[in-house]
Amino acid sequence: MNKWIFAFTMMLCLPSWLAYGKEYTLILKDHLFYPAEIKVPANKKLRLLIDNQDNTPEEFDSFDLNREKVLYPGRTSVIYIGPLSPGRYDFFGEFSPNTARGTVIATEDKNADN
């Protein structure tokens, strides 16, 4: 019976997951985000996966994206963003604000989806 509950739950979650387009991955290592800049298509929803490879927690913070999330060590976290108007959206690590910095660049350029 548990497999039926799981299947039903997945069917309920699937439409919301599909509503978000492409996934983009950031790595947090040595208190730095890699890559420091991500180009994304404007006016699209997306999933941002952040792999914290440090041994300490960090807090993803962005006033521009109106998001904040604790990133636990050795875990991958998901942040949903968008749709974004064309522009630059800065983010930083609250526990390492001088080093853990980055930018999401939303553009209507067809090459933004790389």
TrEMBL record:
<dbReference type="Pfam" id="PF13473">
    <property type="entry name" value="Cupredoxin_1"/>
</dbReference>
<protein>
    <submittedName>
        <fullName>Cupredoxin-like domain-containing protein</fullName>
    </submittedName>
</protein>
<feature type="domain" description="EfeO-type cupredoxin-like">
    <location>
        <begin position="6"/>
        <end position="106"/>
    </location>
</feature>
<dbReference type="InterPro" id="IPR008972">
    <property type="entry name" value="Cupredoxin"/>
</dbReference>
<dbReference type="InterPro" id="IPR028096">
    <property type="entry name" value="EfeO_Cupredoxin"/>
</dbReference>
